[in-house]
Design brief:
The chain has three helices and 32 strands. By secondary structure, it is mainly β. Among the domains are: 68 residues, no CATH class; 54 residues; 64 residues; 43 residues, no CATH class; 100 residues, Arc Repressor Mutant, subunit A. The strands form ten sheets. The protein has a six-stranded mixed beta sheet with strand order 16-17-18-19-20-21, with no helix packed on it. The chain has a five-stranded antiparallel beta sheet with strand order 11-12-13-14-15, with no helix packed on it. A four-stranded antiparallel beta sheet has the order 1-7-3-4, with no helix packed on it. A hairpin with a 4-residue loop joins strand 9 and strand 10.
Length: 490
């Protein structure tokens, strides 16, 4: 091992040199004030390296004795070396590393004949890179992936057991022997389920459908206390409005009604909105046994269909806009087909036989009192003013026989309904409601009130008793005149 005599280094570390220069002013063989390792020191006299043990003695680590004295004007240099062991290096054939192995930024530990696997730091990130054609495999009976100090786990996998995904060290998804267990809320762009039904196990399970781009147009499916709900949901999921409710105990269904009292109850309508609209483009005949609404009553002693109407409008409208029949009433025996009641009292009916229809009004003697003969009928009939006219709505202007209601009212008032020139208030839609693409009302309809004619009506059958009495009077008078003529002719 040779030292470089001209070096100016003064570094004390493993394998580095430590040099001391002696400028001789007085003849001497003793060099002192040294610190060296025996056997790891070189001595140079005027640039010539001396031989240890022959030209000098260095045995005590602090001084050196020259064999031949240096004289004034000579220069002696002592170079000592720190310990360096070749055994501290790893051999290419393998070995054991007992300390740290440090790499600089972007200095890579490469593995494989083609350096397919690299492990390194780019100064910001630690990187494991597999660029070969195979997989990057990490094996272990139990696998943990966590933060730098080990205080938090991101992924936890146990041999023959669960695998967990964690958030803030709390398990959010874990595999089980039958599937997965999710803790918290699932937000998904899509979901495909094949095979086993989806199950939501909770005291109040729910499924939210959140639509982006349209304010407060979300929906929720929910189960609570045995009842099933479909609800409209606000964007913050704080306000839920019932749209459909199924009572889990009774099976009653409410649409727009949170507490249905019937098998099907529709409520919550706004102005101008229909409760139920059934449309069909089919044209099947009734003989095919098909119906748009079919209510089958199997010997039930109660009502099959009831319409309770408490408003000012019409309770039931049966309308045809083509040549079809608006309403058909049928039964297979001679009997009543429609009954009429007022305040719980039967006041009339429509009955059928195999060949005719009867329109009956109440006339039982047990319903009547103060019964007297009808007199003066002929005079009252003479007050009637039968006329010929056409109805304004009839575009053909076809003339018909009849009466003017207000004229009949002075003679047979019970035959007339309404008052001459009467008006009534009618509610109408000024502007219709505005609906979104899902049929939800975004702007309520604007309703107004207007005055329209309240037309009079006539029941001409009510004239029959008067006409009958007048005819009887006429027949009596004819018989009397006939008797007198016969007497005059005798």
């Amino acid at each position: 091992m040779a030292g470089y005599i001209g070096s100016g280094a003064s570094v004390v570390s493993s394998g580095a040199e430590n040099k001391k220069v002696f400028d001789i002013t007085t003849n001497t063989t003793s060099l002192t004030g040294l610190n060296y390792t025996v056997g790891k020191v070189h001595v140079y006299h005027n640039g010539v390296r001396l031989v240890d043990g022959t030209d000098y003695t260095a045995t005590n680590s602090t001084s050196i004795t020259l064999t031949v004295a240096a004289v004034s004007g000579d220069q002696v240099v002592v170079v000592s070396y720190a310990s360096f062991q070749v055994a501290d290096a790893l051999l290419t054939s393998g070995g054991t590393l007992t300390g740290d192995l440090s790499f600089g930024d972007n200095d890579k530990a490469k593995f494989g004949a083609g350096s397919e696997l690299e492990v390194y730091s780019d100064g910001t990130h630690g990187i494991i890179k597999e660029s070969g054609s195979g997989d990057l495999l990490i094996y272990g009976n139990n696998l943990r992936l966590g933060n730098a100090d080990g205080s938090e786990l991101y992924i936890l996998g146990n041999n023959n057991a669960e695998v967990q995904l964690r958030h803030n060290n709390a398990t959010k998804l874990a595999t089980t022997s039958t599937g997965i267990d999710v803790t918290g809320t699932v937000t998904s762009d899509g979901l495909t389920v094949d095979g086993t039904p989806v199950r939501f196990n909770s005291t109040a399970p729910m499924l939210n459908f959140m639509e982006t781009g349209v304010a407060d147009s979300n929906h929720r499916i929910r189960q609570n206390a045995g009842n099933f709900y479909i609800q409209k949901l606000s964007d913050d999921e704080g306000t839920a409005t019932d749209r459909l409710v199924i009572d889990g105990g009774s099976g009653k269904v409410g649409i727009g009604d949170s507490s249905p009292s019937a098998r099907l109850e529709i409520g919550g309508m706004v102005a101008g909105e229909q409760a139920l609209l059934i449309q069909s483009g089919r044209n099947d005949a009734l003989s095919n046994g098909l119906a748009r609404i079919n209510i089958t009553d199997s010997n039930c002693p109660f009502e099959g269909l009831r319409i309770d109407h408490a408003g000012t409008g019409t309770g039931l409208v049966v309308k045809a806009t083509s040549s079809g029949v608006p309403m058909l009433v049928e039964r297979n025996t001679d009997a009543q087909v429609i009954l009429f009641y007022r305040s719980g009292s039967h006041v009339g009916n429509i009955a059928v036989t195999g060949s005719s229809t009867s329109y009956n009004t109440s006339s039982d003697y047990r319903l009547k009192e103060n019964v007297v003969d009808l007199t003066g009928a002929s005079a009252r009939v003479n007050q009637l003013n039968p006329s010929r006219f056409n109805f304004i709505a009839d575009e053909t202007n076809t003339l018909v026989d009849g009466f003017l209601a207000h004229e009949v009212a002075t003679v047979v008032p019970e035959a007339i309904t309404g008052t001459k020139d009467a008006m009534r208030d009618e509610e109408y839609e000024v502007t219709p409601a505005v609906l979104d693409d899902d049929g939800n009302v975004t702007t309520e309809a604007v309703m107004g009130t207007r005055s329209v004619p309240d037309y009079q009506g006539i029941d001409q059958s009510k004239l029959v008793p008067l006409l009958t009495a007048a005819l009887q009077e006429a027949l009596t008078e004819i018989a009397s005149l006939k008797t007198r003529v016969e007497a005059l002719e005798a």
